[in-house]
Amino acid sequence: MKKATTKVFLVLSLASPAAMAQMVNLADIQKQGAVKLTAQQLRAAAEGASASYRAENRWLLQWKNEAGGKLQASATPPAGAGPETRGQYGKGTWRIEDDGKYCLQVSHPKEPQTWCRFIYKAGNKTYSTVETDGKAYEIKFRLAKKK
Q: How many CA atoms lie within 13 A of 53 on its CB side?
């Protein structure tokens, strides 16, 4: 008998909203059936998950969530960025708050990141949002962890 699996898709970002792929109106994606992932869904999918995407500024951003809420991250500049532009590596932490926010803290030497965002799924797309400003940011990747 084949074991059934469930996939939960997360979207995560190390970039500031201005550097992310596409901003949309949160109310619009909610009208299209976007569903906010719960803390339970995020906790089931986050540990061991890894992410990689190319931001609008063409930097390749990657990280891996490790056990115990730790993570390893890197940011690689685009080809042709110049010899003075170097990649960044950092360690950090991740956590899922009881209200369902995915929180990330990365200690990059040039640009540390600290944020908490709700994660929404709409069809095959996923968005992160702080909700208070009405904006949601589409990320050009998905990551999944099987239960």
A: 21
The pLDDT, as a whole number, for residue 82 is 80
Reading the block at residue 137, the tokens are 């940011």
Residue that has been written with the tokens 């550097």 in this structure = 19
**Cα(58)–Cα(9) distance, integer angstroms:** 23
In a domain, 14, yes or no: no
Q: Which residue has the higher pLDDT, 93 or 54?
A: 93
Residues paired with residue 124 on neighbouring β-strands, in sequence order: none
Q: Please give the average per-residue pLDDT across 2-7, as a whole number.
A: 39
Q: Is the full-model pTM beyond 0.85?
A: no
Instruction: Give a yes or no: residue 7 inside a domain.
Output: no
Helix (H) or strand (E) holding 8: strand 7-10
In a domain, 12, yes or no: no
Burial class (CB in 10 A: 0-12, 13-18, 19+), 117: buried
* 137 close to 129: Cβ distance less than 8 angstroms: yes
Q: Into how many domains does the chain fold?
A: 1
